[in-house]
Amino acid sequence: MKIGIDLEKVERFYKLSPGSALVKRCFTPAEAAECFAKPNPAQSLAARFAAKEAYFKAAGPCDYRHAEFLNSPRGLAVRLNGRLARRIHASVTHTKTDAAAIVVIE
Question: How many C-beta atoms lie closer than 10 Å to residue 36's C-beta?
Fold first, then answer.
């Protein structure tokens, strides 16, 4: 079992737009669409980014878009290269100022 955890400052994500370089480099189109559909996209972007960083800490470095974190009825679903990763579990939370994530790989 491997575990990764990360904490991000939400303020870092306030000025981002759907077309910004960081969004294009780090988030899949589906992730960006979900985040920018929220009333406060910065909190969602920070939480997803924290999830990606937590995944990298557990699994090792890779392209940011390799691991995709999407909303599902049961929480956050993790996809790797477009396929559902059943043995990877993620949980995120955020406040107005901070976002945190933990990823567990069985």
Answer: 15
